[in-house]
Amino acid sequence: MDIKNLNSGVPQTRSNESVKNPSQAPTKNSSAPASQPNTDKVTLTQAFSQVSNLEQKALSSNIDNSTRIAELKSAIEDGSYQVDAERIADKLMQTEALFARL
Fold first, then answer.
1. End-to-end alpha-carbon separation of the chain, Å?
2. Which pLDDT score is estimated for 83?
3. What three-state secondary structure class fits 52?
4. Whole-number Cα distances in Å, 78 to 43, 65, 71
5. Which one, of 93, 96, 97, 76, lies nearest residue 85 by Cα?
6. How confident is the model over 50-85, as pLDDT tens digits?
7. Which of 43, 74, 80, 95 has the smallest number of Cβ neighbours within 10 A?
8. Sign of the CA dihedral with 26 first, then 30, 32, and 37 last
9. How far is CA 85 from CA 80, 82, 88, 90, 91, in A?
């Protein structure tokens, strides 16, 4: 396959004049004041607000799971911990249902 004329049948959508040469670009004078103020704007959605509120509640809650964590570590180490695959699947389905609501 000859690739020399690969783009010969493709219409050109951009002219060569639109490509700017860095040497021709206008330069900014650092001592001149900005002609237009910065108009960037940030809009927060209601979902973000809800997540932010939940984060604050989570940070302020005081839950001590150290006893349960120690029990799980012990069960894993001695080999008595059993994985309940059906319970895990149910929890995954509940999580997916919650995400589907958003």
1. 51
2. 94
3. helix
4. 52, 20, 11
5. 93
6. 898 999 998 888 888 999 999 999 999 999 999 999
7. 43
8. positive
9. 15, 9, 5, 9, 10
